[in-house]
Amino acid sequence: MRIIYFIFFCFLISVLLKAQDNPEDLLKMVEPLQKKEFTISTFKTTRLVNFHTTEVLNRRSLDFRISHRFGDINSGAYNAWGIDGGANIRLALEYSHDGRFMFGLGRTSSKKIVDGFIKYQLIRQTTDYSMPISLTLFSGAYHTFEIAQISSFNKYQLNVDRISYCNQIMVARKFNSNLSIQLSANIVHFNLVDNLTDDNTVLIAGIVGRYKITPRQAITLEYGYRINKYSSNSYYDSFAIGYDLETGGHVFQVHLTNSFGLTENEYFIYTRTSWLNLGVRLGFNISRGFSLQK
How far is CA 259 from CA 49, 88, 124, 269, in A? Predict the structure, then answer.
């Protein structure tokens, strides 16, 4: 065994002496030992407009989010094109301890929904493209406290009837410093549906894109295609166009969307208006981050 150690030691010394004549050889030996650098800011926040992105919060970070949607633009001048009424608002707190796993809690005014979710970034894109994508998993649960009277009785007979779920797989790639694109597979399940003919489980294919126009500004787009329809009623696919503005600790997002709901079980399924007849609304998100590291 000592002979083997001696031979290895002599080999190492010879390599180092040779590297003095050509330092680039020594760098080539060290490079594989260096830590890989991961791509940052594929998207600016954990959400684009409504849809989640592959991004998670930084380690030991807390995010307070305000999401707001006004009424339909096609409601006319008397309603100030939606500004006067029909608003929906969601307040949420989200936290990550290690920069890979995060969770959040939220409350939405429409349908009195309380939601909770967990999110884990399983794969991270590297700057040398040895790993060309980021992959994030998401799982959320939603409980409505609304009183829904149908023919003088509440349609929610059991507490479990009020609960729905969503699971997502998101794959994203930052192609360059300006362009990022994400694809997602989504499944939403309702314990209780409105009609006997409705599907309890709906599959949605999603796509989101972000193009940075300045170091602090970006144009965003998202679309969710419902593979199987939830109901025979007139619901539409969720589509939104947005604008991101980073202002230090805040990220301000303003957008147009045909979705009134602010949680996955709402905007994926219950989008009741269409872009074709201006059934869209102005909305905004405000994200305020706090670092809890010493």
Answer: 10, 10, 30, 9
Split at pLDDT 50, 70, 90, the class of 153 is low
Rounded Cα gap, residues 71 and 64, in angstroms: 24
Q: CA–CA separation, 226 vs 167, rounded Å?
A: 14
Question: Of 70, 282, 271, 280, whose CA–CA distance to 188 is shortest?
Answer: 271
Q: Are 20 and 27 in contact (CB under 8 A)?
A: no
- Cα distance between residue 164 and residue 63, in whole Å: 24
In which domain, by residue range, is 79 found?
42-291
Q: Are residues 30 and 61 in the same domain?
A: no
pLDDT of residue 27: 47
Residues contacting residue 88 through CB under 8 Å, at least 6 positions apart: 68, 69, 108, 109, 110, 260, 261, 262
DSSP state of 132: -
What pLDDT is attached to residue 57?
95
Classify the phi-psi angles of 164: left when phi > 0, otherwise alpha if psi is within -120 to 50, otherwise beta: beta
The yes-or-no verdict on residue 15 having pLDDT over 50 is no
Q: Are 145 and 72 contained in the same domain?
A: yes
Whether 107 shows a pLDDT value over 70: the answer reads: yes
Q: Burial code of 251-274, b = ≥16 C-beta within 10 A, e = fewer? A: bebebbbbbbbbbbbbbbbbbebb
DSSP string, 210-237: EEEEETTEEEEEEEEEESS-S-SS----
| CA gap 144, 165 in Å, rounded | 12
**Are 201 and 82 in a shared domain?**
yes
Q: Is 78 found in the same domain as 2?
A: no
* Residue 141 near residue 159 (C-beta atoms within 8 A): no
Beta bridge partners of 250: 247, 288
